[in-house]
Write a structure and sequence with these properties.
This protein is α/β, with parallel strands linked by helices. It folds into three domains: about 110 residues, Rhodanese-like domain (Oxidized Rhodanese, domain 1, 3-Layer(aba) Sandwich); about 140 residues, Oxidized Rhodanese, domain 1 (3-Layer(aba) Sandwich), CATH 3.40.250; about 130 residues, Rhodanese-like domain (Oxidized Rhodanese, domain 1, 3-Layer(aba) Sandwich). Helices cover about 30% and strands about 15% of the residues. It is built from 15 helices and 15 strands. The chain has a five-stranded parallel β-sheet. It has a five-stranded parallel β-sheet with strand order 6-10-9-7-8. Helix 9 packs across helix 14. The longest helix has 15 residues. It is globular. The protein starts with a strand and ends in a 21-residue tail after the last helix.
Length: about 425
Amino acid sequence: MSKTVSTEVLKNELKKESTQIIDIRSNAAYNGWQLQKEKRGGHIPGAKNLPHKWFSYLDWFDIVQAKNIQPQQNIILYGYDAQETEQAAQQFKDLNFPNVHIYHHFTDEWCLKNDLPLEKLPRYQHLVPPEWLYELLTTGSAPTYQNETYALLHVHYQNISAYTQGHIPQAIALDTNLLESSDTWNVRSSKELEQVFQTLGITANTTVILYGRFSNPDYKDPFPGSSAGQLGAFRCAALMLYAGVKDVRMLDGGLQSWVDSGYDLTTKEYLPSPVNSFGTSIPQHPEYLVDIAQAKNILEDNQSNLVSVRSWREYIGEVSGYHYIKKKGRIPGAVFGNCGSDAYHMENYRNLDHTMREYPEIEQTWKEAEITKNKNNAFYCGTGWRASEAFFSAWLMGWPNISVFDGGWYEWSEKNNPYETGTPTTKTVHIKQRE
């Protein structure tokens, strides 16, 4: 059995650099969901999230190294289940971590004492776990849901087979082309959006839950994005917030998280019940999208960032990232907010199971690139999908001045604006690629 620590000892260890606290609960619990009906939700400050299920991954130690958890540190693990916590501790000890301890009183002591600190993702309720969605679908009720109507949308891009091969019960198929133009990839007009929402049975007061299916892209396909359903879901989420849907939620990890949790899929088609009105004018949040003129103003403002959520190869101009975009390069002055490997992956914003990466890690990597909460940050990519995921991450964190440059590299490069290639000669401001 591993050594244990008391609440008082753990409290004294919080600010020690030599100590690393590890939360082995799910990322949903880490973010703030009270999955065991504990009095308070969230995680112990400074804790890193290493969910118990990851310990079964062959490359789990690579994750440990990526999180900079070091053998010389004093490791303290906690979770919901004592047996799972002990198993996690044993794996660390098997890898010659000499100082491994367990804290067994997170729910029955730490969460009960209001003077003991907890931190949470500010808008955690908008990033929902599969358990929450299952409860909503089967009972019509779930924690933080205070509404009478909801719509579950399975998002795809001109790839209805992503829906017909199996989807979550009650889910309605949504093609991203309904919300963004297939010519410019920019948001459709307010009138078009209103018509789409009415057809989908969505009003400004409807709780909308979105998700997509991820599969490895076929780069021979003229539009490989047809495989990136979860990216498309983030794009739709950003556009719905822009339009004025008040309660937009994302299934964390998309369809894969539902399957991983053991819930069933169905091939039954579900059709929406149209409504007569969206209920308010569109857009309610025009500040969430910026056009090319506004993007140029952002570049001139030293308290603003135009953040390139693209791969390094796209940023330096080795590739355009898309079959249908000819020019290669970056917008001069844009800060590099690395998405990951290419236009259809977001490794630097996600965990291996496609759930959202531990949000303090995202904030820290952004901070290294001088992307901070006090600045006005507009995210862009090729056509808006990856930028929307970065935007939604910042929105979940409660950042106040954020937007998506809707036109992205596609519109910028098409209109003969200046661009750069090669490694920047100025101060390096890019997020390091995770190995």
